[in-house]
Amino acid sequence: MKDIMTETPFGPEDMARRRKRAIAVALILGAMVVLFFITTLVHLGGAVAQRSF
Amino acid sequence: MSDANSHTADSPAAITGGQGSVGDYFALLKPRVMSLVIFTAFVGLIAAPGTIHPWLGFVALLAIAVGAGAAGALNMWYDADIDAVMKRTSKRPVPKGTITPEEALGFGMTLAVGSVLVLGLLVNWLAGALLAFTIFFYIAIYTMWLKRLTPQNIVIGGAAGAFPPMVGWASVTGSIDLGAIALFLIIFVWTPPHFWALALWKKINADYTEAGVPMLPVVAGADETRRQILLYTLVLVPVTLLPALTGTVGWLYTLANAGLGAMFIWHAWQVFAIREGAEAEAACKKLFGFSTLWLFVVFALILLERALGLPLFPPVLA
């Protein structure tokens, strides 16, 4: 008997596409972190540790 | 919204969603349009007086590119019904059925908000606000309102494509100057003759007629469109020389543009004068191809002058 709770409407090809999409989203999120980090350093400028805030 | 689901209801994506590949999502961004946006924004960034840290310049271009992609995705969401009818656009992801209209909407909105926030937070808020307005203009003013309403859709809607160099410029200066407005005007006035030359092609014209989009050749006829192409071209050539008055360019740009402008007028005249048969179609194709190359060369000349360190004219308009 079919268990409708565990059946997925997606075949292997669909799941492969989903996996690739998930990897792309992960890479974009990682790139965003790097983007914000480097931009923060650029805005701060040099000799940050020597500054008196 | 448009009745997109009526054309995609039988597709797997319309039922379940989640069928789109990474390539399908990339296609939603209209990469060819995006490349032109990146190029013109880059020229605006380089032509602007002042300097910007190279990394921040890169961030600005990235945000502008993603903002352009967002506008493309939102356009494909709203226009899915007419895209499905026209042969030229029927293979796009939404009418093809690999991405649902809701997915395209969510993707476009996420990128739109993200690109504006990144540009505003990391570069400056005037540039961010201009990018937000550009996306709004393309979607709300052009796609949703004018495109299906008036044959002047391209004239006013063309402003959306003309904003990127202004956004690039504002990323450097934090202001909107006459030099930026001159670059805006070049693309704004260039857009109608460029797209009307395309719309005069028989198969493209048939597509627009089938979809009920009131492009000028469909509503006013081919003869009136040819007249308008010539008139806009005659306005475009002097507009191209405006950057000389704002101190943005020098002799190389100005002299080269005098020649390029004469060639543009000649192509527009050919379209105006030859009205029947294969030669008329060929003249339209030549004008469309030439106008695409023309815009690239005009903006590339600005870059070339900067790269060679050539002197610029003193600003007459300031």
Question: What do you see in this structure?
Answer:
The complex is a heterodimer of chains A (53) and B (318). Chain A is mostly helical and 53 residues long. In chain A, 62% of the residues lie in helices and 0% in strands. Chain A is built from 1 helix and no strands. The mean pLDDT of chain A is 83. Chain B is mostly helical. Chain B has 18 helices and no strands. In chain B, helix 5 runs parallel beside helix 9, helix 5 packs antiparallel against helix 11 and helix 9 runs antiparallel to helix 11. The radius of gyration of chain B is 20 Å and the shape is flat.
Task: Give structural attributes.
heterodimer, A: 53 residues, mainly alpha, 1 helix, B: 318 residues, 77% helix
Largest sheet of chain A: none
Shape descriptor of chain A reads: rod-shaped
Overall residue-averaged pLDDT value of chain B:
92
What is the rounded distance between the termini of chain B? 44 Å
Helix content of chain A: 55-70%
SS field, number of helical segments of chain A: 1
Structural classification of chain B: mainly alpha
User: How much of the polypeptide of chain A forms β-strand, as a percent range?
Assistant: under 5%
- Low-confidence residue ranges of chain A: none
What is the structural class of chain A? mainly alpha
What is the number of strand segments of chain B?
0
SSE string of chain A, helices as H and strands as E: H
Helix segment tally of chain B: 18
Q: Major beta sheet of chain B, specifics?
A: none
In whole angstroms, how far apart are the ends of chain A? 69 Å
- Please, what is the oligomeric state? heterodimer
Integer average pLDDT of chain A:
83
